[in-house]
Amino acid sequence: MQRDRIATRPITAFLKRCRDNHYVSLFLTGIARPLRSACRDLANLIQSNVHKDSAAIQLPNGNTMRIARNCGRWIATSLYWHGLEGHEPETSRALRFLFERSATFIDVGANYGFYSILGALWNPKLRVVAFEPVPQICQGLRQNVALNRLETRVVCENLALADRCGQATFFLPGGEGTGREGKVAEGKDLDSAGTLVADGWQARKNSPRIQVETVRFDDYEKRRPMQVDLVKIDVEDFEADVLAGMQEVIRRDRPFIVCEVLPRAHRNERTREIVASLDYQPYWISPAGYIRVSRFDFGRSNFQNFLLSPVSTPEIVLPDLGVLWDLRFARTAA
Question: What phi, psi does 252 have (nearest 5°)?
């Protein structure tokens, strides 16, 4: 082994001299940049078109997060190619901070359970109630919960939260393989961009629709009392109705709320008015930090999630959530 190293020293020295030569350097850098760009484009192409139908990753605390076969292919693919930071990294970090400090998490529009499962695995004492109105997706959610052995701490409800109890029409986008009744061929994810909004783009495109059961969270909580610390809402333009249906609990418990608010022609005025009436402060979750805002109708690229906070500080930009968490519980103690 020592002889091999000695024998290769002259070759190594010659290659280093070549690399440091001006003309050789020009040649190498001239071909390296387009080659790197081509490799990056090829990697992106592969990651965009090669999908995983199941996945398992180890979390920093040693727990393993598993996605069952055909129970959230987009989650499995994201975890496989990019790990925990592959899906909404800024929002995920915010929720992980809050998971560690919360006792009860309400996941509204849980889909296949990415955040429900992550929260329960992140904090072994966290209780989760996950609401998913689409039966096929809810079944996949339950399978993921069972695969991760979280049945005792994650309750899956096949219900839609709204501002009234009863039945409502749920509009599903007509994705590949989707039938008129919202059923999907084997091996396909049901598109998660469904909504209860009657005049949304899904309805205008005459998309598949199903009847779902709706409930006000305030009524649900009266039957199953709990102290709510954290809420996540992802309901495709129906967030104002969800908030209206849980006002009593929000005023009582003052939970932190992470909410997707998409740009819309109506400028999300109803959501802004309800948030203001609850005396909550919106913060835009962005790569630059948590930016205090007074409205939702501004250009924000691909970052659509907001922290609705029961407390605020004079600072416009917060680098982390520690100050808000401390302030929230200081006020509670007082």
Answer: -80, -50
Q: What angle do CA 268, 91, 197 make, to 5 degrees?
A: 30
Domain boundary assignment for the chain:
2-49, 55-333
113-152 confidence digits (pLDDT tens): 999 999 999 999 999 999 999 999 999 999 999 999 999 9
Residue 232's DSSP bridge partners are: 107, 258
* Sheet with 166-171: strands ordered across: 160-161, 209-215, 166-171
Question: 282: which strand partners?
Answer: 308
55-333 under CATH 3.90.105.20, yes or no = no
Q: Give the tens place of pLDDT for each residue, 250-296.
A: 999 999 999 999 988 899 999 999 999 999 999 999 999 999 999 99
Taking only Cα atoms into account, the Rg of the chain, rounded to an integer number of angstroms, comes to: 24
Q: Strands 230-233, 104-108: parallel, antiparallel or unpaired by DSSP?
A: parallel
Q: What share of the chain is helix, strand, coil (3-state, %, to 5)?
A: 40, 20, 40
